[in-house]
Design goal:
Blueprint lengths: L1 E8 L3 E8 L3 H6 L7 H8 L4 H18 L5 E3 L5 E3 L5 E7 L2 E7 L5 E5 L8 H4 L2 H5 L6 H19 L6 H4 E3 L8 E10 L2 E12 L2 E6 L3
Antiparallel strand pairs: 1-2, 2-6, 3-4, 5-6, 7-11, 8-9, 9-10, 10-11
The structure holds coenzyme A (COA).
């Protein structure tokens, strides 16, 4: 079964985050005859129980958001495309949580637990102006939001050649507990595409998504 833990929308975007338990297998079985043979075997053949259930939960939530079963195909970069409806789609999972974003414009979403482990990799994905915006008291949460933002923007772009530190730029922002709005861009081959992002801190996890209001 899935439980909605966060949901928001504007005229272009719908975002939902759910938690799930082992009953998700039963919920998934109710929609599986509407999936293509390829989609079904791709999901059923995932041996790792958690990964399989994350994928199933994504499909069940998508089904609930659309009111019918969506058909998804993946491109050569692993980016999902919703072939049955005119929405851009993005997924993220972390443990027993799944986030789904549908957008009439561009989607990108990421959910991560906040942990001090982020400190080991900040220099790999953050540039200098981003790093100096971090302060000691909120370091782990704030750094995780930068990470989620870059993952969400990476998913929006969808192709592999982006370097997080150089091509995915987040405008340094102050961290305010709860939720907030900030800006990010994809900078590649002399072009720059700007996006508005939103974050939410929900319990111990951070959620970032594009916001195309
Ligand atoms: C693909 C990637 C973004 C997935 O992120 P993750 O944190 O591992 O996992 P998440 O649960 O958040 O996201 C998984 C979803 O990403 C989506 N995804 C995978 N590749 C994608 C792509 N090229 N474009 C858009 N979305 C993609 C899939 O929909 C997947 O969910 P699904 O299998 O249920 O459909 C990530 O593994 C990655 O490759 N990041 C870039 C690597 C990198 O450059 N790192 C540098 C750090 S310094």
């Amino acid at each position: 079964m899935e439980n909605i833990i966060f949901k928001t929308q504007n005229s272009n975007d719908t975002i939902a985050v759910c938690s799930f338990d082992e009953n998700i297998e039963k919920d998934f079985s109710k929609i599986e005859d509407k999936l293509s043979p390829q989609e079904l075997s791709d999901i059923k053949n995932i041996r790792n129980e958690l990964f399989r259930r994350q994928k199933m939960a994504g499909r069940v939530i998508l089904n609930n958001l659309l009111g019918e079963t969506g058909r998804i195909e993946y491109d050569q970069h692993g980016k999902p495309h919703l072939k049955s409806h005119f929405f851009d789609i993005s997924f993220s999972h972390c443990k027993d949580r799944v986030a789904v974003m549908l957008s009439k414009k561009t989607s990108g979403i990421d959910v991560q637990d906040v942990t001090p482990r982020i400190r080991k990799i900040v220099h790999k994905y953050m540039n200098q102006p981003e790093l100096v915006s971090l302060t000691d008291e909120t370091y782990d949460t704030h750094a995780t939001l930068y990470w989620c933002a870059k993952e969400a923007l990476y998913k929006a772009y969808g192709e592999r050649q982006l370097i997080f530190r150089d091509n995915i730029i987040v405008e340094p922002f102050y961290f305010i507990p709860g939720s907030g709005t900030f800006n990010g861009s994809i900078v590649l081959n002399n072009s720059k595409k700007d996006f508005v992002l939103k974050y939410e801190i929900i319990g111990i996890f951070a959620l970032v998504y594009l916001w195309n209001e």
